[in-house]
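Lesson 9: reading folded outputs for more than one chain in a single document. The general rule is that every protein is listed as its sequence immediately followed by its structure tokens, and records are never interleaved. Here is the first one.
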Amino acid sequence: MLKKIVKAKPLEKRGEYPFNLAWLHQTDELAFKKPLTFLVGDNGVGKSTLLQAIAIQNQLPQLTNERYEEDPEYQTIAKLATYLKSHWDIKSKQGFFFRADDFISFIRKNRRLRKELENELDLLDEKGVPKLAFERQPYQNSLTALKLSYPKELHQLSHGQSFLSLFKSRLSPNSLYLLDEPETPLSPQNQLTLLYMIDEQIKQGSQFIIASHSPVLTAYPDADIYAINPDEIRQIAYEEIENVEFMKNFMADPKRFMHYTFNQ
């Protein structure tokens, strides 16, 4: 289990993002005492950046199998990762980093790969290559692996169904999972399904660190919650999450919110 992240050396003077985040300069370490930790806060405060830096620092692959160094967006975050050090009790070599923004592109890539493999096998059929020929095996093995992982093509499912299918297929015990707003493609009901999957993996020794805006996910009864604001990061209770308080007030009197929103 990942126990904490600490600064390995002083950060650069404040300049370009993410080194202009004040809370980053004020925080020397962040402890993970429970198998599930949530990072909450407004857009732009650095939740995703922190997750990405932890992933790069621990060489945790992306769920989409994209390489960090091939994405210019990760270059500055990779620089931040060099300032961090991870402390483990037993280091996990399994798991992944997942960013909800990458989900649709992964679905398209999966569909394209499946089609390319099928086309290659069709060409070999046209050439009269026998079904058991060695030449067919790389394509057939890859296609079989895809079908076993995703029995129904992901693009034929709804966004929520395909996400849950993908997520379930890639989970394994004793792993570290860093998830950036996984609630994005999910209805509230499917968020509960995701939470059930997470709980099942926690029981098998896995750890999750999740950046989220979801009042459903963050209600998990035995999780630590860190709120990140521009000046600090601090541990809070579920009831103190701004989104939770807002949704309680909104659901208590939605007409009042609509009135003040559209009649100012």
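And here is the second record, again sequence then tokens.
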Amino acid sequence: VISVDSVAGLATLRQEINLTAQKLPLDLIRKVTAWFKVVYQKYQSEAVGYLYYQAAMGEGQFVPPTQTATGASAKYEEAPRLEGWQVVGTIHSHGSMSAFHSGVDDRDEEFFDGVHVTIGRVDSVPEYSCSIVVQGKREIVDPSVLVDGMAPAEEIPSTWLATVKEQAPRGLELLFQVKADKLYAAYYEGKLSESRYKTDLRQLELEEAAERKAKAERKALAENHVPFLNKGGMRDVDEVYPRSFPLENRDWGKKKKGVHSGK
């Protein structure tokens, strides 16, 4: 048998993990979060608990095992056996850190099929990172996929998103800043879509960058070729020859046009 990445004529299937059980009740997540907050206030430590599911009733519950508070981690016992209930995952906290699945989490949960939730920032405004693990593969999912009562991003009204605007552009040269301000005003008032505004603003910034470059080049050229009168009231040789022009290549034998010879 020879393994292959694809077979000609067959569509490539994307690996996907979907939850088929009932979602976790929002009230349960609130209680677990409140417990994590109390544990952190008392021990400045992480904490962990097991998720159980009863298929016949379609119900879930959270059971924390006996554990030792150790700051940035938690040492805990195996999941206790509950008659009629199946262990289907874990919920653990990250204390004051953000919610993410760390390397330790990956190792602990690699062969632990089920739902795994990390709750971070329990010292302030909690954050949630949710995932489903199956046969060593982790699928990060939106909290709304696992928690009943949390709205997915798709349900957010577009009018709500439209109320949040980009910051006004600043720091452009005067002429371009005036144009940018007019562009932003149209965008802010809803007369211009965000995508069109970004495209037009980017074009304006490119034009300004080109103008800055051109100005810098003109300035460098002017500084390298500055005519002035010498002590005798005559224009300096650098009016005819730029200062960068090699001395040995200058035609000293020829009279410069418009320069008095003294005769």
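What the second record shows: The first helix runs from residue 26 to 43.
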